[in-house]
Input
Amino acid sequence: MIDSAFLAYILERYIREDPAYKIKNLRHVALADLKHEVSHYKVCDAKQKAVAAIYGDFKESYAELPRFLAGLKDASPGTKYKLEVDDNYEQGTCTFNSVFWAFRPCIVGFKHCRPVISIDATHLYGKYKGNLMIAMATDANNKIYPLAFAVVESESTETWGWFLACIRRYVTDRRHLCVISDRHPGIQAIFRDTNRDFLQPPMTEHRYCLRHLCSNVNTRWKNETLKNLVWRAASATQKRKFNATFDLIENVNRDAYQYLKDVPKEKWALTFDKGYRYGAMTTNVSECFNGVLKGARSLPITTMVKYTWFKLNSYFDDRRNKSIEQLNSGKKWCQYALDIFMRNKVKAEHHKVTRLSAQAQSYQVDTLHNPGTTGHGDHTHAVNLLQRTCTCQKWKLYKIPCSHVIAVCIRYRHDAEQYIDPCYSVDALFRSYAPVFPALKDRLS
Output
C-alpha cells in the first residue's frame, strides 16, 4: 500500500538535509520509520519526487535555466556561461544539449593560483542522466579550488573538446597551462589533435594523473609490486633514479614496460615534466565531488547551478577569512610550502657546500652517506642561485628550494625563503579568495 508519492513525503526531510542521501540508506530510513521493507526501485522513484517537491520539477528546471543563467550574469558581471541547445524548428521548441558555467570570483581568483588544473567528470543521478564535468585548480596552500563546470550528455572527444575550449575562451588564457587528467580516449584525442592550437604547447601542457595510470596498470596486470614500481618511477625527480626503476619494471613485466614506453614520458614521469605540474602528480577532483559539491549531482539542473553558486560562496568566505587571519598574524608563506621547506632545511644541515664562483653564485653540494634514505645519500649536486637551478631538479619541479639550495643559503647567509615561488604566499592565498560572490537578484525584479 506504500506508493512512491507517500514514501517521498516520508523521506523529504532527510533529502532536504542531504540531497546526496544514498538509496540504500534511504531504504534503511523507510524500514525504521514504516517498519516495512521497500524496494530499491520505489525508493529511487520516491527520491526523485522528493527532490522535485523541494527543488522544483526536473523538466521545468531545463526551461528555467536560460533565464537563471542570464540573471546570474546580470548579478555578477564577469560570470561566464555557454548554453547549447538543439533547435526543433518544426515544433517551435529547442532541446537542451549542454551547458558550461564559471563564476567571476573563481575566474578572477585563479590568476593567483598555480597555472595547473585537473579535469574529470562524474555521472548525474537525477531524473535525467548525463555527466557533470569540472575543472579544478589548487590554491596557495594546496587545497582544492573549483574553477569551472559543465553538464553534457556523455564523455566524448566532442564534449571534452568543447569544455576545454570554453575554459580557454572564458576562464584563462595563461600560457603553459598544465591540464592533468585520466587517460579517457576522448581527452587523449583532443590533445593529439594539432588543429586545436589552444591545447598544444606552449599554450597548454597535458599530463596524466599518476593514480589513474597506476590503477590502469594494476587492472591490466594485477601485480602490486609492478604498480608500486610505476609509482616510484613516475615520482622520481632525477633521470638516473627513473631509469633504474624503469629497468626494474622491465624485469618484472616486459609487457607493462612496453606499455609505459609507448606513453610520452613527459605526460607521466615527473623528472621529464619541466616543472609544469608544480609537483602535482594526481587529480583530486574526487575530493571536490565528495566534499564541496556533495549532493549536487542529484538535483534539477537549474538548482544544480544555484547549488554550486552558494556552496562556492561559503567555501570562498571561509577561506578568505582564514587567509586574512594569517595575513594579520604576519605569516608570509602557506603551511603547505613551509612544511616542505622545513623538511628540506633539516636535511640541509648535513650537506657540505663548496663555493665555485661568488660572482656566478655557483656551488657544489655534497650529501653524506645515509642508508636510511631512498637514495642512500653520498651524491654531488650543482646549485646556481642566479639561474635558480639544482641538478636534483626538485627546486625546478616544486618551485620550493630543495635541501641543497637551503644548505648554500645557510652557509653564505642568504635568505632561502626568497626562493619560494610567490604562488605559495599567504598574500596569493588571500587574493585568490578575495573576490566576493554578490547577492542574486530577485527573480521577479
Summary: DSSP finds 18 helices and eleven strands in the chain. The two ends are 45 Å apart (CA to CA). The first helix runs from residue 4 to 17.
